[in-house]
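Worked example

This section walks through a single chain of length 620. The input is the sequence exactly as stored; nothing has been trimmed or padded.
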Amino acid sequence: MQFNTIKLSATAIMVIGIPFCVNAAVYNVTLETVAVTGQSSAATAISPDGSQVATEVLIGPVGLHYSEEMPYMVDEEHIINSYKTLKTYCDNHLGYNTCNSWAAGQWYGLKAEGTICDAEDSNQVCYGGLKKEINAWNDGYISNITAAVNGTKTNPFGAGVSGTPPLGSANPDSTNVVINQILNSGSTVGVSSSPYFQNESVYARAFKVRGFNDTMELLPPFSSNQLIPLIGQSIAHGAIIFSGIKITFGSASINNMADPNNGKKAPEGSMLENLSSCIMNVSYTDRACQYFQFANQAAIWVDSYTNPENARIIADFQTGTGNSSIKSTTNTPQASVKSASILTGETAPMMVGFNTYNDNDFYVRAVKYTPILDFATCLTNLNTNASLRCWTMSLIPGIDLRQNGNIIYSYTVANDINTNGIVVGIVKNSRRSNGAYAETVFINEGNSTTLLGMSQSALFFPGYNATVAAINNNNELVGKVDVETARNRSRRQRGYIYLHGSAPNLTDLNNKRGWLLDDLTNDGNSMGNNNQFRIAEAFDIADNGNIAASAFYCVGGYNSTVQNALCNGTEELVAVKLTRVTGDIIPRVYKVSNVSRSGGSIGFIGLGLFAFACAFCRKK
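Given that input, the structure is written out below as tokens.
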């Protein structure tokens, strides 16, 4: 993923001897959204029947993800709020030699031509970057990410928010909107920031982020804590229908952040010593309240309840091994529901996600939320008795963080579950493997968990990094995966599909489980529509096999059908829909060559792709 255009030198490579034959590919590629020059887009959600597509347009790096309870899944202290702490994260968890540039892009943003801004850019004419959000109090703010469904913009909080907002007028073009799920009806679930309200020379937002279900603002649970009703947060990852009742799931604030007196929690450039004043002066006029964080717990919203907009909590925070430390007073726990499904033969929804466990530090761990025996009665009573727990929580087995006494994973998280009870997610390795802190895909069925590797598919070489965004009910999972083994820098990645177990369409894909989507979109025609695209990442997959994705786009087509063919014009990152058809598989050839890239934007090409990937983190 990247934020701007890429210009490639056509003289840097000459491809010869490529056969020209035209066939029908397995997927047809349809362009969904073309962002304006200097921006990028992606199709991030698709309806279960494959008919509806949600797209997002990103202007620049996000710094911190808009749809993530814990920044980068490791910042339990809420101290990643500066160039320095972004670089520290990169050093410790990404291991790039280019962490200075990576952190600069996330903090300062990018210039229009795609190069990275830094402290020397006195005018700061930059796009995206966390610094812009920190400085919004004085400078105002323009949306960094916008969302749409079938081309129609979605902005649920653009006109304002519930309750009593900050004084002043709301700017509808100052929200950041993420769509995490779209239903067959076109109904959307996601998360949005509050618009900024201008009151004379000050710009204040009502809250950092809250979930939405179509136009409904999803509130935290009822609380005697004054901060939570005013600026508390929520995130909605999706919704499921149970006996005609819509249950929206995600997370909601239940307590204040730990240790707000800690000066490290005040963002760089905020002119604040710490954030403690927000507790003593609960007001939009206190700048500290603009950056205040919360402990967020797994939550649901039920449309049949008396107050459907208020969250009900479904779990409790855990202590894990029973080990404790001083960090339990400085770190803030988090939990969330990422996906839900009613399993075949069952009547109540199984859910998956994560919860933090205290094991001499706070760690994110993948969990299942299993409905209790009398679930229907419990759900009814939860309307008036918020203390009930209608699900029991358990760790997903086989991916313990601590093995043989040592921490081997930084975190584990479950991203999706299908009606067959198959759970997919990621484990983040805390040790280097082949020059990378690898993110490995896991698949769980009951008590059995498999880490995907070479024995499953050649896509998953030792030390690979991948995401797993979604799995459909035909056991087809999608995401992105490394396609090179470079060390100590961000690697080139491409979208993939993997067919697990008894996937019914396995024979249609030559009985090979793992494929790069570039291979399945190749029809052998260098002049055809599909040759204008190389699939960067897959974000969602419908039951009919249609996929929401992002792709590199070269108007008029690349100069051949090989995977790394050149674009003689301008290359952009765009939102695409992949429609499955009956066709032939023609694996793309990879040509070894020297490619020169103009514009001097190494940081943009190498780092922007990774940053854009993180911005569109998994949702379901």
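What to look for: The longest strand covers residues 245-256.
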